[in-house]
Amino acid sequence: MSSRAGPSPTNLAPAIAAAFLAGTWTEDAMVRRAREAIEPAPRWLRRVAANVAVAYPHPPSDAPRELTEFVRLTIERLRVPPGPQPRRVRRWFLPKQHMVRRRWPVAELDSKAELAALLEVDDARLDWLADIRGLERTVESEQLRNYRYAWLPRPGAPPRVLEQPKSMLKAAQRRVLRATLDWIPAHESAHGFVAGRSARSHAAAHAGAAVVLRLDLEDYFASVTAGRVYGIFRTAGYPEAVAHALTALCTNVVPRAEWAALPRPEQPVLAAHWRLGRRLATPHLPQGAPTSPALASLATFSLDRRLSGLADTFGARYTRYADDLAFSGDAELARSAGRLATLVGEIARDEGFLLNAAKTRVMPRSTRQRLCGIVVNEHPNVTRAEYDLLKAILHDAARNGPAAANRAGHPRFRAHLLGRIAWVEQLNPARGRRLRERFAAIAWPDR
Predict the structure, then answer these.
(1) Which of 125, 422, 99 is nearest to 241 (CA)?
(2) Measured between alpha carbons, how far is 379 from 375 in angstroms, rounded to an integer?
(3) How far apart are CA 218 and CA 154, in angstroms?
(4) CA-to-CA separations, 288 to 140, 147, 206, in angstroms, rounded
């Protein structure tokens, strides 16, 4: 295969990089292959190869695009003249990509074909699920999309968008989650979507503090861009082509028609509504995909690291549960909470996030300190109101029957009550036991 090269020698960079990667990684061998690729062979190829060998002691077989850009910049830096006659690509080498290193025991995937095998789909189906044609954003027919959409209104805020992958894409995302993301560790300050950590562990870290500062990230999932997701998969060791495919499987753009159908919001939330629209119109983490929580937590690693360091300078403790950021400390922190919140906002903005200023709370011990709905003034606990309400529902169910007590119409009322009781037990075992006793008195109909 051959083609005419443009007037600039930098146009030859892709062919030179491919030739370098296609065999033995020594300067002489790289130059020999590059001379086979370019006609007439330029004299400056050895200088380019020497620069590449210094920058890459080992062949970057997982990053041909990166190497191409390095070659292009090297040629540009050397100020190579065009030469007396146009050069052309005489031969294209086709080096194979593969994982160079695995920082964690993620699934080994050297190619898109191996990714397709992992997902148990063929290449065409993989391309469809990855939406390489960009149909999700533009087509009006729901049948041609990989997602279904729902909008939940929120008072004083833009609606919450749920992007729910259809069954085949959801199955593929779950395989990606188990094979790759479950093996990549989150920051120690992250407590949401991390095995062995929970909302309780997040709240417990701040129990008994003189002051608790709570902040919230705006549009958490939608703020995580495809570029950041791609960086996670590259850091895990996946070649560029595989990382691109994984990123496409795990990100989405909301159809124009879906966004346009929403009513125009009132003035107080107009700016936030506009920001959400911009985020949803570009590839981002969809709220509803099984891979999004883990990817969001990993994408926040740098933010967690910087905020942990900031907390140390204030003598404070920091943890994060999804989009909820929490700092706690002594009375001195109460006096500097405003300054801390300002710095958190600056760091978050630098990391690609915005704080929702309306949700920032400074909670001294004299007030009820709540994180993720958990009271932390002394120890993690449910609120008295929440406990009393659940106790009243159980009493009603025991006295008048489950059907009468199920005023909210929960389709699985028994499981709903057991889940709420289990949540109370985690925070306050004594209260949990009393609720269990009331639950045992309920006469459930035969099933």
Answers:
(1) 99
(2) 7
(3) 13
(4) 21, 9, 29
DSSP 7: S
Q: Using one digit for the tens of pLDDT, what is the confidence trace for 128-157?
A: 999 999 999 998 888 889 999 999 888 888
CB 330 within 8 A of CB 315: yes
Instruction: Retrieve residue 128's tokens.
Output: 């469809």
Q: Are 305 and 268 in contact (CB under 8 A)?
A: no
Query: What is the C-alpha separation between 372 and 385, in angstroms, rounded?
Result: 15
- Segment 218-265, tens digit of pLDDT: 999 999 999 999 999 999 999 999 999 999 999 999 999 999 888 877
Confidence of residue 86 (pLDDT cuts 50, 70, 90): confident
